[in-house]
Structures are given as structure tokens and as C-alpha cells.
């Protein structure tokens, strides 16, 4: 669908992407102006829609693009040889913090997309987030040493509880951010809170 855009030289692609990410992250989907995007990118409005079709398709493309960059970098860095589940999750959190510092604009756009209440894109973004969560939790759990877990526990149900716990934490944090004027996520506080949950979950499920 986006082959015309992807056939552009990299510098022009980056210019358009950066302009669009900036506009959407600052103003949200409904209030973002394609006029401002083309002005910042130095292209015509006709060309923008030639590449993406419409505003909605451009936004969804950007969401996929940002998530792919973060995911590619994440899976280069993550140690999937670590067999302890909670150590692996700790490693994942540290890497996410590194990537946040490396790609602040991408994270800002993704966070705003998560929070956006526009009826035009909300369902699609929620579906994409669900798919991403399923894929990422699957990879994080792959190759884990389950012999550390209590033998009287159903591992599938244990993983479901752990997954639900962190998904719920994520939802609660995003709801807090929605109410915050700055829409800023306090990653350091979240990391401390996650460690507290680790301690409880390890006591409950490890031998």
C-alpha cells in the first residue's frame, strides 16, 4: 500500500516521517494538520496523499513504523538466553529505558497514539496494541526455565496471571497519563513498582 512512499530516497522519507510524528505527537490525531505536516516536510499536500492515501492511513503507517523500529532494536539487545523469567523481564525494562532515551520522539508518538480517543483510529490502534502484546509476551516467555516454578502450579495459568498483572499495570499507567496535563510517563516510578510485583509473584510461584 505504501510502496510509492517506500521507494523515495531515505532522506525524503525521514523528513516526511519526522514532520508527521511531530505534528501528531503534539496535537493528537483529530487536531493534527496535514497542512502543517507538508509545510514542515517541504512537499505538496497532493504528494502526501499520493504516498499515504489519507490522514488515517498515514497515522497507522507511522504507528507500525515506530513500533517496528523499537521492536527491532529491542530484540537485538534483549538476552533471550536468560532463562529466569523475572530476570528476563528486568532486562526488557532496562532496554526499554535505553530506547526511550535513544528515540524519545518515537516513544512520544506511540504513547499519544495509545491515549488518543479519536473514533477514527481508536479501534485500529487497540487491535494493533493487542497483537503486539501477544507477540511480545510470547517471545519473552519462550525458552524460560519453568523448573523454577512450583510443581503444583499449572504453568499456563501462572503465565496468564503474570501477563494479566502487567497488562493491567500498563492500562492503569496509561489511564493516569490521560489525566496528566503533560502526558508524561514516570518510568522510574513504574520500574520500582514492577520490582515490588516481582517480589510478590516470585514468592507465590517459585519453589
UniProtKB/TrEMBL annotation:
UniProt name for this protein: TetR/AcrR family transcriptional regulator
PANTHER family from the UniProt entry: HTH-TYPE TRANSCRIPTIONAL REPRESSOR SCO4008, TRANSCRIPTIONAL REPRESSOR
Stretches assigned to the HTH tetR-type domain: 10-70
GO molecular function: DNA binding
BP-aspect Gene Ontology terms: regulation of DNA-templated transcription
Ranges annotated as DNA-binding: 33-52
KW Lyase (keyword) present: no
Source taxon at top rank: Bacteria
InterPro entries: DNA-bd_HTH_TetR-type_CS, Homeodomain-like_sf, HTH-type_TetR-like_transc_reg, HTH_TetR, Tet_transcr_reg_TetR-rel_C_sf
Sorted UniProt keywords: DNA-binding
Matches recorded under PROSITE patterns: HTH_TETR_1, HTH_TETR_2
Organism: Bacillus salipaludis
